[in-house]
User: What shape does this take?
Amino acid sequence: MTDWKEIESKYYLHVVNRQPIVLVRGEGTKVWDDEGNEYLDFTSGWAVTNIGHANPVLAEAIAEQASTLIQTSNQFYTVPQLKLAELLVENSCLDKVFFANSGAEANEGAIKNARKWGLQNRNGASEIITVSHAFHGRTLNTMAAGDKPIDDFAPVPQGFVNVEYGDIEAIMFATTEKTAAVMMEPVQGEGGVNIPTQDYLRGVRQWCDDNGLLLIFDEVQTGFGRLGTLFGYEAFGVEPDVMTLAKGLGGGVPVGAFMLKDDAIALVPGDHGSTFGGNVLTTAAAYASTKYIIDNDIPAHAAKMGHHMRAALGELMGRHDFITDVRGMGLLNAVEFDREMAAATLTACNARGLLLNFTRPQLIRIMPPLTVSESEIDTAVERLEAGLVEAAAST
Assistant: This one.
């Protein structure tokens, strides 16, 4: 049998430490490796495969479009792109959309728009206030906007003011005549599944309104049902001026987008573009996935399954002192520990047929496909408990 791990070590740039598993097939919540082992996938491609692996609706849409037309560029109108644009606008509080290839690109577009908007509407203001523990991507600008170390890639892009997450007064204090926008995730995913109070987000919205600032929500991870509502902002009753999307938008096909309210638009022809952004194949896939989520009320199912999962995880915490917190919304959840045992937990759970993710040494992130069943959650929690006990004994 081909040693794919050896091939990876020889040919692929080592910027990711992988789990020692070669995945070759998926169906629903399950995936299989090249040795025939079956796993419950509670990573869903990092909150991407929201309608499950190999969903027939998505597969059929991709196959049909691939046999018809794949790429034209944005020089021409294409039907799948405009069908998707209509679907997103009609089911959100935003008025216009531009399609990109990833979440980082979507955030870059939102940043560019905010700076030009500040130039036009706030006497040249260009700074964007961001918050601690945020993650907005891995381009230079989005890293500068986030909370990952970036000094190794100096000179660091300027124009971002980072303040403490959850502190409305910190945003107030940081606002100056140079401020154009505030940018944040409704719920922080990479930062550890950090959930704000409704008062915090409402306070930020009010501050932006009172001071003429744009509010940008990065919904790359929280969009498309992940929090139990189609978009995360709906869970808090706070509307953004600009929203960025990716991950669950394509159901597994790489596509991103940024959406804007009409009075937040500054970009004009020539300001922005993309060769592949809004590609016919990716937008056909994204339309099929998004319509499936809406037509089948997948967000409501995610909310129900999320309650079930947190109840089971809460019972788990009651049985094990090394678990210090269980938190989440919908099907974006985290378990935190009193020690650095996340890596050992993943290894132990891999061996038991459960795939997880960790963003900090003392925290695991749990984000299955939104189509997951109660019985699959119960099985996953059983496997998780066995893995945790093993990991705790070794750390």
